User: What shape does this take?
Amino acid sequence: MIYWKKLPKEERKNKIQQALNANVNFAKDTSLGYPASKLDGKVFYDADFLKDAPVLQTFVANPNHIGCHTLGDSESAFKGTHELEKEVLNVLAVDVFKAKPNEFDGYISPGGTEANTQAIWMYRNFFIYKKEAKLEEIVILASEDTHYSIPKAANLLQLDWLKIPVSFENREIDTIALEKIVLKAVDKGKKYFIVVSNMGTTMFGSVDNPEDYTTVLEKYNLDYKLHIDGAYGGFVYPFSNENSIINFSNPKISSITIDAHKMLQAPYGTGIFICRKNLIENVLTKEAQYVEGMDLTLCGSRSGANAIAVWMILFTYGPHKWFEKISVLQMRTQFLCNELDKLEIEYFREPYMNIVTIHSEFIPKEIAEKYDLVPETHNNENKWYKIVLMNHVEVQHLTVFIDELKSSVYV
Ligand SMILES: *Cc1c(COP(=O)(O)O)cnc(C)c1O
Assistant: This one.
């Protein structure tokens, strides 16, 4: 760990105060040109408690984090809080995902949907600009358990998505089907492959092996770029599986999505996008001339308070406390699995993740509804219900659920 540590409360408060002092202060400074200000004072008034609530104080000060702060210049009016966003990216890119210092670009996006779209947009343009690819020669590969943000991005960017089947029980990529699909695509004139490999699917928590893709693509000498969707698993898997190699230590991986607004319990609007150097330039919008610095992100203006919220969570915990928190969730997940085993109820669980997805035939519909279990599909063909062991899902809640399930199994 180079960047990530636990900081005491006073130190965190001071760092944020200093960052805000380095920004333009709309309440005091003469700043005439920005189409922005602090939040409306009639509603977001300067309450006394704000001085003890640095994230809320930042929220009211309303810094704009428009743009990408790892490359070129940024809007200098908010340079104080931009620095703290860079600290967040350093922690995640270098300390958690093993990039080398200063060898990555990234930003805090509105969510995982945008981070995934940014990745696909970047690779699409990379193939067009650098390899003279035609649009119809580029295609996306991702498993059938992939999040719907991928077909959404495919639609926006006018690319086909080839959906790779997984086995029903263990949710692993069917490599034989994958090879057939790739060969058929080549036959149809596809030459450039954008791979999205999941590090924790939304429904199952299953983790794809990126090598399943690279082995097939390299066997046929095909051009590809590899993105990891860790929107859900990014704050779980690297901590529960210390030997994980799904990170930038693998030269084949070029970018990663990690949502702070899921496992990290940060406010919505904190998707994180990280990629290797020399890629993000492919989405430069040259026309954005009134903004200081280069425009390299899908979204424009975005809230600096979101970056500060993520910074606060990371530096309140530090790496060891975060590891402990994930370990507790893993123990609760194991508790649930043990109870299901006793009842001979079938389920899927990726051993390093905190999602348990149960065969729907074991769960009466009333129980699923009562406990808000999420079905795989909201129609009559649903085969799975999932339980996500988030922070608020405690053993006492699981026990009540299991007891109710027991009485339904034994009638
Ligand atoms: C939630 C999720 C997304 C999308 O994230 P949003 O933040 O809701 O846009 C993408 N991929 C996976 C695997 C997810 O779990």
